[in-house]
Write a structure and sequence with these properties.
Blueprint (H helix, E strand, L loop, with lengths): L13 E5 L4 H11 L3 E6 L14 E3 L5 E5 H4 L5 E5 L5 H11 L4 E4 L13 H7 L4 E6 L14 H7 L24 H24 L3 E6 H7 L2 H10 L16 E5 L4 E5 L3 H10 L4 H4 L6 H6 L1 H12 L4 H11 L3 E3 L3 H6 L1 H5 L3 E6 L3 E6 L23 H9 L3 H9 L4
Parallel strand pairs: 1-2, 1-6, 2-5, 6-7, 7-8
Antiparallel strand pairs: 3-4, 9-10, 10-11, 12-13
Length: 412
């Protein structure tokens, strides 16, 4: 897939990226992987906040730390970086000129912050009516919380995710828990990608652009999925179940003699096979555990017995036994085990790109696999302002003298 000579789905699209941190850059990296020309606008001398969110840093060719934070590398490949101070009139004019050469603007500034610079949707769409403009904020453009700053961790709490994530309150370690990655940011970036593609499709049919208002809180509520739907149908707020399932037993994690596994016995036959290969055949016929409703009722009796059973064998022994018996199972892998897994390697889930200061950087691949227009990985995440001169000369025809004047005024 890397550097494919085939055409890319979005190679005719240019995106002006006024985002930073994760939700917005995740969206624009998706668009870049699909072939769009993404121009990342950053603050002079500082750049995206995540450039300083280290360690860890990428290693250079000699194995020493570079200045490229791994967090920044996560969401910025395939883009061209330019530095523009949008707080200056000259910088605002540069952005307007670039908008006229772009199809999409994506930003994640606070509500109305870009309005004072004349870079809001109303101002820019007056110049370019077919512009697709996407705003990403914590709480959206309307409502009593619109002016608040939104952070993934806070939204996970406010949006209900932490109320259903974590061990049961009555067990050791019980209590609310956030997800191990900034899942709300990432899902907002994914929804933004979908929305931009839908708006571009609409524009191709009608010639008309539109405004997209995306909020982290809205996304968090939406991604509750069946749990949210269950509440709306029943009026009963669900509780945390840790790694267990509220309706199926056994469907959870277990500690083996040397690690942890997941057992997902979704029916009575799978349960019987589980206890039989574990040398506890009496559990298959015990009337308290003979069917799933009974196992759910007597969960607190059965699960400790199963936990003792599982501890008697190693992780690899259990995985081999359960897979042979047709019982759904899986390991809980550390990331070294993830990236060494033969299936992960066969699916090319990690890629390597040459970098101007960090040698070759290893990155997580885009999971989209397309036959006619595969994802592209043309460039590593750019250095701060790496493409300023080239972009302003190529797209706007700025002369060396104009660039020097803007640089003298610290505009670029």
């Amino acid at each position: 897939m890397t550097n494919s000579p085939q055409s890319a789905s979005l190679e005719h699209i240019r995106v002006l990226d006024l985002t930073r941190v994760l939700a917005g850059p995740w969206c624009t990296q998706n668009l870049a992987d699909l072939g769009a020309d993404v121009i990342k606008v950053e603050r002079p001398d500082v750049g995206d906040d995540t450039r300083s969110w280290g360690p860890p840093y990428a290693k250079d060719a000699d194995g020493n730390n570079s200045t490229e934070a791994a967090y920044y590398l996560t969401a910025n490949r395939g883009k061209r970086s330019i530095t523009v101070d949008i707080a200056t009139p000259e910088g605002q004019q540069v952005i307007r000129h670039l908008v006229m050469q772009s199809d999409v603007v994506i930003e994640n500034y606070k509500v109305d912050q870009l309005k004072k610079y004349g870079l809001d949707y109303a101002s820019l769409s007056a110049l370019k009516p077919d512009l697709v403009y996407c705003s990403i904020t914590g709480f959206g453009q309307t409502g009593p919380y619109a002016a608040r700053a939104g952070y993934d961790f806070i939204i996970q709490g406010m949006g209900g995710l932490m109320s259903i994530t974590g061990e049961r309150d009555e067990l050791p370690g019980g209590g609310p828990q956030k997800v191990g990655v900034a899942i709300t940011d990432l899902m907002t970036g994914m929804y933004a990608t979908i929305a931009v593609l839908a708006a571009l499709t609409h524009r191709e049919r009608t010639g008309v652009g539109q405004y997209i208002d995306l909020a982290l809180l809205d996304v968090q509520v939406a991604m509750l999925a069946n749990v949210g739907s269950n509440y709306l149908a029943s009026g009963q707020a669900p509780k945390r179940w840790g790694n267990a399932h509220p309706n199926i037993v056994p469907y959870q994690t277990f500690a083996t003699s040397d690690g942890h596994i997941i057992v997902a016995a979704g029916n009575d036959g799978q349960y019987r096979k589980f206890v039989q290969v574990g040398d506890y055949p009496e559990l298959a016929t015990d009337p308290r555990f003979i069917s799933n409703p009974q196992r759910v009722e007597f969960r607190d009796t059965l699960v400790p017995i199963l936990a003792e059973m599982v501890k008697k064998k190693s992780k690899e022994e259990w995985l081999e036994l359960l897979e042979s018996a047709g019982v759904p199972c899986g390991p809980i892998n550390r990331l070294d085990e993830v990236f060494n897994d033969p299936q992960v390697q066969a699916r090319e889930c990690a890629i390597e790109l040459p970098h101007p200061t960090a040698g070759n950087v290893r990155l997580v691949a885009n999971p989209i696999k397309m036959s006619a227009t595969p994802t592209r990985y043309n460039n590593a995440p750019p250095l701060l302002g790496q493409h300023t001169n080239h972009v302003l000369q190529e797209l706007l025809g700025y002369s060396e003298q104009q660039l020097a004047q803007l640089r003298d005024k610290n505009v670029i």
